[in-house]
Amino acid sequence: MTTTIIRNAYVVSLDDELGDLPRADIRVDDGAITAIGTDLTFPADAAVIDAAGKVALPGLVDSHRHVWQGAIGGAAGGQSLGGYFGVVLGALVDKYEPEDVYAGVLWGALKALNAGITTVADWSHIVTTPAHADENVRALRDSGIRALFLYGPPVGQGVVKWFVESTERHPDDVRRMRAELADDGARVTMGLALRGPEFASPSTTAYDFRLARELGVPISLHSGIPGYLLRYRTIDTLEELGLLGPDVHHAHGAQFSDDDLRRIAATGGAVTPCPTIDMTMGMGTFPLVGRALEHGLVPSFGTDTIAGGGADLFSEMRVALAAERARANAAALARDEPPATVDLDQRDVLRFATTGGAAAWGMGDRIGTLRPGKRADIVLVDTSGAHLTPLNDPATTIVLNAGSSDVDTVLADGVVVKRGGRLVGPVAERARDLIEASRRRLLARADLAPALGPDWAA
Hints:
Blueprint: E1 3-12, E2 20-29, E3 32-37, E4 47-50, E5 54-58, E6 60-65, H1 81-90, H2 98-114, E7 117-124, H3 130-143, E8 146-151, H4 159-163, H5 174-180, E9 188-194, H6 202-215, E10 219-223, H7 234-240, E11 248-252, H8 258-266, E12 270-272, H9 275-280, H10 290-294, H11 313-334, H12 346-360, E13 378-382, H13 394-401, E14 407-412, E15 415-419, E16 422-423, H14 426-446, H15 449-452, H16 454-457
Parallel strand pairs: 1-4, 1-5, 6-7, 7-8, 8-9, 9-10, 10-11, 11-12
Antiparallel strand pairs: 1-2, 2-3, 5-13, 13-14, 14-15, 15-16
Helix pairs in contact: 2-3, 2-14, 11-12, 11-13, 12-13
């Protein structure tokens, strides 16, 4: 048995029974939290982490991210959704060889871990061939992150073929991968990233859903996106086909109607707004946060794509909080009245980025809060910086001010992957070289370096 003891942390457990503990130890044995309290005993050979001056949080959960895009951060920074389709899915996806998938996913996962994200739902549409899928999974495993590998459509075979009222059925290779990832309690598990009615014909959608349910895996869709892309509305079509259910996860959803949300809630589905991308790429006026809550849906958060957004959930929490406050206050302000109440606060959005994500993927029994019996996905935030001092309320202070550089230590399934503000281990050391080499190859193949500027060509 290996033991790690985190000493003298300010523990924000997000557990309803434990609450906040201003000074506490966390004991970890073989990847699980076994005790939280003051002055815990531990073996003489235990690894000791001094957490004085640091806040311990549950590992953050990114519920919708295209992890393979590690090499192309900023490539679609000035683009709307249509521009993103052209630059990323149209010009780059088919240029990825399996070695580029490995490099991109490895670096993307490490960027997430660096930001305190210990679990990611990896919506992978870079699976052009089975070899591409294999390298995606290998990179997730090598990175140390907890991941749900969402096996998507092979867009590299042709974006129009797979995304414009497609009649192509989801690739049968998912059966092989399901057999490989059959242990649902493992650190890397599996789901299907399906196109759904907004990108595939109803009969294709019905086939894909039957496949996912035959395999017994969760389903993730891009849903509720702008109407100019639509022929079939997601929720209407899924209801007509009898496909709505608790295994269906909807990413984005900024264009959902109240009736859409009612039907998702009634069938136990989950929603994940991606606040930055939803607004900057023109998905909707406001992210789906407050409206989801009004219908009994607890949202989770996703970063979606670093090609046009950031790589951390601290920023997403701030954007979501500000946007929802603006939406909720708009009617009163239009009447020249002060808003009556403030219904959403910093601790709420912190819960969406932790417990909300864990619940969305059926992992609430393993992650999302800090309590004995759960897996040791733990983040230590260094609060010694001027922007985090004084620490009057840790959740509020961290949500409003913290970033990736304040994440001092990260444990994923009990393994230290970041310490002293730096990623650790041999994988981290070689990942940077791999991603730089992949970036140069991709830009040369796509002939994008001139358009993206001299920094990209360096």
